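Can't paste images in this forum, so I'm doing it all in text. The chain is below; anyone willing to post the predicted structure tokens underneath?
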Amino acid sequence: MNSFLFERELFIPSTVEGLEECLCIVKQIGNDFNMDFEKKFCLQTITLESVENAITHGNNNRRELKVRFKIWVTLSEVVIEVEDTGNGFDIKTVPSPICNLNIRKESGRGLYFIKCFSKRFYLVGKGNIIRIYIKR
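Text version of the structure:
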């Protein structure tokens, strides 16, 4: 098992300010660990999409509900875990945004970006927790 070089957990309100707090942390990680532009972009995009989905879909933009954001860095990867208070979802029900029928729809784009920019990701529990692995 890899040892952690960095670990942080936040409980943020379901607001833009909460999202910005998470983005500040990943920006710091990108700089502190000398990540190249592409890695920083992937890390920031994955954070933006996963936290925004938790705020919007999981917590229905209810600012009093918290989103748990956890991030840790090992020698080989960065792991992000985001948890909301919602009922979760089944990933198989999210339409592919690159399918011709859905190309003009906004739904599914965030998960698509997460899939493209991560090494792998999983839904945990009832589907209200996403754990994302990014190669360092």
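The chain has one domain: 6-135. The longest strand covers residues 6-13.
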